[in-house]
Amino acid sequence: MKFIFGLGNPGIKYQDTRHNIGFDILDILAKQWETGSKFVNNKKLNSEIIKNKNLILTKPQTFMNDSGQAVRAVLNYYDKINFTKNT
């Protein structure tokens, strides 16, 4: 499974601004790749997600500087990387 995270800032204030270019690119990819899905808000993961068989597109719904928290939650949820262990 592959993940693509598009970074941006939540809220109407940042819609259609350079701050949300990551969100805009994911919208374009979802359309071009004909995912047949719309982004669904997953409050538990603090992200909007499209999940297909081999691909997960994710728009973290945290502000840019806090996006690592949402990325970590998504990767932990899908058991790709376990960030809960201190190394």
TrEMBL record:
Give the Enzyme Commission number.
3.1.1.29
Say if the entry is tagged with keyword Membrane: no
Swiss-Prot/TrEMBL keywords: Hydrolase, RNA-binding, tRNA-binding
Similarity annotation: Belongs to the PTH family.
Is DNA repair a UniProt keyword of this protein?
no
Enzyme class, broadest EC rank: hydrolase
UniProt GO MF annotations: peptidyl-tRNA hydrolase activity; tRNA binding
Task: Extract the InterPro entries matched here.
Answer: Pept_tRNA_hydro, Pept_tRNA_hydro_CS, Pept_tRNA_hydro_sf
What is the recorded name of this protein?
peptidyl-tRNA hydrolase
